[in-house]
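Entries read chain and fold; for instance:
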Amino acid sequence: MSELLSEAVEALGGSTRDGQVQMAEAVGRAMADQEHLVVQAGTGTGKSLAYLVPSLLHEERVVVATATLALQHQLVERDIPRLVEAVKDKGLDTSYAVLKGRSNYACLHRVREGVPDDQGMLIDVPQGSMGAEVLELRAWVEEQAESMGPGDRDHAPRHTDRVWRQVSVNHRECLGATKCTFAEECFAERAKKKAAESHLVITNHSLLAIDAIEGVPMIPDYDTVVIDEAHELVARVTQAATDELTVGDVERAARRAQKHVPDRGKNSGAADDLADAASGLADALAATMPGRVEEMGEQLHDALEMVRDAARALISAFGKDEGDADAGKVQAKGMAQDVFATAERLANSSDADVIWVSEARERIPARIAVAPLQVWAQMREGLLTEKSVVFASATLKLGGDFNSVAGSLGLRPTECVDAPGELGEGALPWRGLDVGSPFDYGKQGILYVAKHLPQPGRDGLAEKHLDEICELIDAAEGRTLGLFSSRRAADQAAEAVRKRLPHLTTLAQGEAQLPELTKQFVEDPHTNLFGTLSLWQGIDVPGDSLSLVIIDRIPFPRPDDPLMSARQRAADKAGGNGFMQVAATHAALLLAQGVGRLIRTTSDRGVVAILDPRIATARYGSFLKASLPPMWPTNDPRIVRQALGRLAQG
């Protein structure tokens, strides 16, 4: 193991680290002993190779699931090819494949035969600028087909979601390999076939959830899975298991069906009945207060039952599958099936689900959504009892131990092999391992908590917070990443800094695409970049371009978040501490991710400034601080400004 890892690391131009070796050996043991492993490996450890090497050595197929496209791209385009090259003479099965959901691949039938409009008629190309983008994508799809390329969305020319839908289908809209004229060339089918022939399969959290937890076979047989970015897994599984319904969804399903269902006989008028049910749903949503639906009113329940029953009747009206390859009919029936499944789940109103109504906004219609109250039980039953799982991330140890995260993933703290007592029958043994980080956080970073500031309010940033932000950025001469709890706070801070420090460039999320903003931020050190959630986890800026990270407040979930508040109340009802188990754990994970933006290499230096005094004054503050990298702490703004000034002078 160690020798192979060393050769692989050398092939990638690096050198092995103690933490990386420790992790690789632990991953290998977990795979061999069929145990679960929860491993925290700090940024710079080289955790990708630490699980890829034992994965290649494992006798059976291994699935690697990531949360982000960036990591998937790193694995497939850099780490795995170099690893394969390094071990090519070792006699190992080094085959690998990437597998995504069907809607992530272009559909040759849709590109070549056309796209049904709302009446189910096939149309060629939309008009205007969208039409030009569709034509460009279609040309790219044909090039991919000719060159045997992957034909997946992540390699496509720049496009919007709406344009991509013109060249792709979801699993319900797909004709299937037995009916489709273009099955031999199909990108999704080729990817599936390659995965079935490969030792390593790289996929995403959502597809893993559909395969293992929802029981829909999407991935070839495997006995071991490595889940990287595991701190994201609960959110991704929840997202994959969330359904929503709008009046427009129901109306479109009815319109699409008109051409394909008989206009006489017992099923006549089925499409009109669904359209009528859509009107009833519109009235019910208008009469329902936005927010969580704890007790479903009679009007809303009746409206959902009408939609469900009308959709069921419409599905029957399509008749039996006679093997035809009518794309319009398949798509129309698929839309009706989606409406039926969601309406049925909502009408059932299970205690295991949380239902809420979102208020209509400009261009965004009101919608009713349903999500699982918890996902740990589904993960335990569908994944952990069947597979050997390695959970890996830079942030899994919260409050000083793994118990919070392990519990949310379906692993009980009492099942940890290091816990006192014997494991009972049906226990799922797991180990927790923190391999540390190659960074010397105590020397490389300062954690500054502005204890003298007032507690953040709900009305945006106070004047004292804006003063503090400007003073810190002035000392740093730019080089600042501002992570804010709301778009309003980010814009407010950007406006203040532009006014008071006009010699610096200040960028705000939303003013351009994030890659463009990041590029400008990296290229000019006298620049600030302010934003919200996607910046907390999705940006990597090593070097002199970043020496100050500002966090305006502890990122607790919003009090009106229906799902998080429901989970918190459920934890309280079960005898636990809902605030600590849900809100504080959520905040700790995000806070650790945000603080982790500062130190990305062994040469990085800087300050993380948290402008929320509750980190220092509240009882839960110690839990949050114990979840962060061990930077040198201070509450003295003078010391921090002096340190930033020295960094700015080089």
Notes: The chain has four domains: 2-95+198-236+375-434, 102-117+131-192, 243-372, 441-648.
